Amino acid sequence: MEDLEKYSYSKLDTYMQCPFKYKLVYIDKKNIYTDSVATLIGTLVHATEENIAKLIQKNEPIDYIKLKNNFIIKIAEIEKKFYKDYWTPDKNGVLYKDKIYFYLDKGIYRLEKFMKEHPTYKIVGIEQEFLFDYETAKVKKCKFKGFIDRVFYDTATDKYIIQDIKTYAEPISDEKLTTPLQFVFYTLAADNLWGAKENQIICQYDLPFLDLTQDAGTKGYMTRGKAKLEKLFGSIDNKDFKPNPTPLCHWCIFCQTNPNQPEAAKHLCPYYSHWTRENKTFKTENEWQGMENHKLVLEHYLKSHNVSQIEGGELNGKSSSN
Question: Are residues 85 and 185 in the same domain?
């Protein structure tokens, strides 16, 4: 049996965010996971929305009081675990508390309201899993895998409405809505699962923290998306792992400025940005000098942080500073 490499959207999105992080996670197998307030709240919202969708699909009553009580209990646990992050305003000055209150007041009712406004819609996919082969003239055969948050079928128009839930605090920019690679994956998956073609599919982001739904994928998004996939796979095949240090490094597990960095992720990336909320700098730890010089850069970095390295890439000794 052919053992094909599997790619999810999140795997390719990691490469788009930072090719060097992709190398650490998927090539060097440093797949180190840690929770954050954002990921935990996102997971909680998704679980709540999944429960509501299943009840609607089965035509059963929705116990919002029970759902809200469970939500509040879980939020209290998250707040306790990540107290500082929970009470730190985002770039728009909004607290998680405000987003949670809005969701419990309005956002949690969105799906039921949406279904009443679209009586010809049926829910046909909830956390819909997919796995299928993908291959083009420029992309070697592999498998695409993942889950789609929600899929509706409109019996009146013979169209499929694919929704992805995002716990964003502001609308998605028009630039990002034009060719969202995530929906390129989902459109290919819908063809594999239901035989749905591009002209039968409507792509939407659902933003329950904003009481907003945004259409995604403008005309020709699949053509552009497939071209983007070919470019990404070409870069990966060519081992182009040049890092992309930005302020987002601060939340990356491989960044030394991340206050929640797990021990196993320390000192693996010598190229991170020094940006923090308190020090908005463009300085980076080291400049990229190509993969051929990475070992020397890493050795210099480890030495400067009082960390030694032994066989197998394991670290011996600990840094004198974080």
Answer: no
